[in-house]
Amino acid sequence: MVIVLNSAAPPPVAGPVSAPGLALIGVGPGNPDWLTLAAHQALQQAEVVAYPVARRDATGMAATIVERFLLPEQQRLPLVFPMVRAMEALRPAWIAAADALAAAVTAGRRVVFLCEGDVSLFATGSYVLLALRQHHPDCPVRLIPGVSSVAAAAAQGAWPLALQQEGLLIRPCPDDAAALQRVLRWAQEENTVLALLKLGQRWRWVQPLLAEHQLLDRALFAERIGWPDQRVLPAAAVPAGERPYFSQLLIRQGGGWADG
Prior knowledge:
By secondary structure, the protein is α/β, with parallel strands linked by helices. It has helices at about 35-45, 60-65, 85-105, 125-135, 150-155, 175-190, 205-210, and strands spanning about 20-25, 50-55, 75-80, 110-115, 140-145, 165-170, 190-195, 220-225, 230-235, 245-250. The chain folds into 2 domains: about 20-145, Tetrapyrrole methylase, N-terminal domain (Cobalt-precorrin-4 Transmethylase, domain 1, 3-Layer(aba) Sandwich), CATH 3.40.1010.10; about 150-260, Tetrapyrrole methylase, C-terminal domain (Methyltransferase, Cobalt-precorrin-4 Transmethylase, Domain 2), CATH 3.30.950.10. It contains 7 helices and 10 strands.
């Protein structure tokens, strides 16, 4: 499925506004203190606060992050996105969300849509933005970036995410060992740090594979970053087994500055 941007659509609006419009806000990976000033300002100005949920009666992780900043008079608008990978099931949800958000803006409301992490990195908000551009090209939209889980994990682990001569590849963890070995070989050849997301049950086989390649001591493991139960520790300290869905791994195969 491909959604094409409408070239005639107005570009995202920059800076805070008080007129009716929509702001897609990155609220970070968990810690409310990581909300940016721009996101906080937009949230305080909003009359409608929309956020993704897996089902209608759920709260949603993004809404939980900003709960303490919400005002009693603000309308809450949960938008349902099924927890599936099939595009044919997700596309109607993106379009329905775009319709609901555009309708609120057309009614003269100031609206924000909350996105966990950064608004443009593996974000539901990105697909909603594309649906808005296709179906509601005149809807004024601005994007407010947020702290990504990758940047937060590196900071919490005091682990340089990428040095000046290094590349950085952020991607979901491959589904099988052969695919991961190909990625590891490429990253080593290209002096590129790997950020592998959504480890979950894959850690059962990823851990022994990294041990085989002597990479556990060169990797940082993080799970549920930004939440009270977060764990950030050397990968060598995490035994093989299933981990939470929101787990990630940072791997540096090349030498740091001290090895140069």
